[in-house]
Amino acid sequence: MTAPRPAPAADPARVPFDRRLARAAQTVTSRALGPYQTAIVRIGFSLTWLFFLLREFPHRHEMYGPDGPWSFDLARRLIADNRAFSVLMWSDGRLWFEVVYGLAVVAAALLLVGWHTRAMSVVFMVGALSLQNRSVFLGDGGDNVVHLVSLYLTLLRCGQVWSLDARRAARKAARGEEAARRVELAGPVLWIVLGGFLVAATWFSPLTGEWWMYVLLWVLWLGQGLWWLVEQYAPGEPRVLLDVLANLTHNATLVVLMAEVCLIYATAGWYKIQGSRWQDGTALFYPLHLDYFTPWPALSELLASSGIMVMLLSYGTVIVQVAFPFTLFKRKVKNVLLVVMMLEHAGIALLLGLPAFSMAMIAADAVFLPTVFLVWLGARAARSRDRLLRRKDTAPEPPPQRPAGEPAEGPSGGDAGGEAAPRTLVG
């Protein structure tokens, strides 16, 4: 007797439209899409901003502080016109500037490791916008991307994986339901502290055109408090409703972020096509001969001496940037162009001396990385971390120092360390 044949898979084209629509609605409401992609975006941009702040730490006063050529009065007049947001406009004191700069560094570091990601993403956004809007003429394309993504990170559920929040949630789930409901003081205390700052900022700061930022901050703060109350005292249908709203916001923001990256490359590529230097393939030749963009003069001279290489890189840059948005529905072609663009930005960091710009663009490109690769990368990183920690834990302890005057033999007359096995540090 032969086994029954399995039923053939249904053709997606033959599935009724209403069923496909219901399935799509269930997908975007039941889970936050792209958890690994949003996590790598969070890590990439927080690392980029942290690297930039630490690298420019000796020059912070000249760039964004009271010693800069763009004075406080000029910045206040400009912000009054463009309605930008910057907490540095509340005071021109040196102490206030140091506090804001220090909080920006701390927020970037904590967002990098994913500690209370929602709160840290808001502080990260406030720090990035405040510093960049203080001296808008110092920014480049990478700063503009950080500016935009800092807003998006406040709406993304970017701490689901590869974060301290994810590890804490996993430990709560392993301990049981009652342990999972146990109140942790760090979250409520952080919420109260940030709420106090928000009340003071709303009360004392002059409200002009940046009122929308205060509305956003109040919505995020009240929403986080409501989330905590529902999680503690109403874990049923109210929690499900909040999850649906959070997933919808996350997925919509993820689509906007992906569209933003495509728009960046599309506009950059099409504007390059209109330039005569890009049309004749000599555009790369000129920055390679500028002292400002030649951290390695010998390497730049070697590359610029080859006309064919300059032409290939110039044309290749335009082709990749124009073609990338059209390859999103062809996975293999998209992955190839993604690798090419990341290598291109790595070359820009090396040849033109723009590491922060390149890091920001690579972090933006990471939103299109395939999930399989990111899972493999995370597993390899975790394996390497465990191996490194295991080596440290199993390292033999140094032999104890013998006090002066004590005999070298042990109590039994043999060597003190005789037959005993070496002790190890237990992890």
Residue share in β-strands: under 5%
Computed CA radius of gyration, to the nearest angstrom: 27 Å
The whole-number mean of residue pLDDT values reads 85
User: What is the count of DSSP helices, taking H or I runs of 4+ residues?
Assistant: 18
Write down the secondary-structure element order.
HHHHHHHHHHHHHHHHHH
The N- and C-terminal alpha carbons lie at a distance of 57 Å
Which word captures the global form?
globular
The helix-and-strand class reads: mainly alpha
Summarize the structure.
This protein has 427 residues and is mainly α. It has 18 helices and no strands.
Describe this structure in words.
The protein has 427 residues and is mainly alpha-helical. 66% of the residues lie in helices and 0% in strands. α5 (94-113) packs across α6 (117-134). The protein starts with 16 loop residues before the first helix and ends in a 34-residue tail after the last helix.
